[in-house]
Amino acid sequence: MTAPVRVLVCDDQALIRTGFATIIDAQPDLEVVGECGDGRAAVDLAGRLNPDVVVMDVRMPVLDGIGATRLLAGAGVPDPVKVLVVTTFNLDEYVYEALRAGASGFLLKDAPPAQLLHGIRTVASGAALLAPEVTRQLVGRFAARVRPAGEVAETQLAPRELEVLRLIAEGLSNSEIAAALVISQETVKTYVSRILTKLDLRDRVQAVVYAYRRGLVT
Known about the structure:
globular
């Protein structure tokens, strides 16, 4: 029997923490191993409890979710923890910064419980998850600030790979990309794998951030 996914819940509002924990613990394949109310406590608890996934709020005292995510999953962390950011702010600059910090997924707090559970399972499996409404507005009003000046030439990607990268950044799933390009989902998976390898990216979330930073989508 497969061990349940170990989840640490971090949110500065006790009512939300309790709600998330209740929803998560009701699932036979998920287990809440700890709760805390600030990012510093999340980093400390993660070091002791070794969770598979941290459900992380953004705006918290002591250390916010972005700083905590960077310490748990950022560049150079030897044993990164998978972080699913859940917040009320879908157009906040923090969305973009949290993903840059190393988050593997991003959901809004008004998402239905089933979407939260799906998000935890998706991130735990090693995949990345972005709520479609977040993906499509990921940079939004910050696009001009993050797009580098000058012409962009992604010479390491083949034309079809570049096309797939743009569709990923627009929030399309593998099945939607397959339908748009009239190819199989297995072929899409192959393209995605090649893109991540060639650009030295960890997952689809990083691919989205990369595409916006390079000005490949607007």
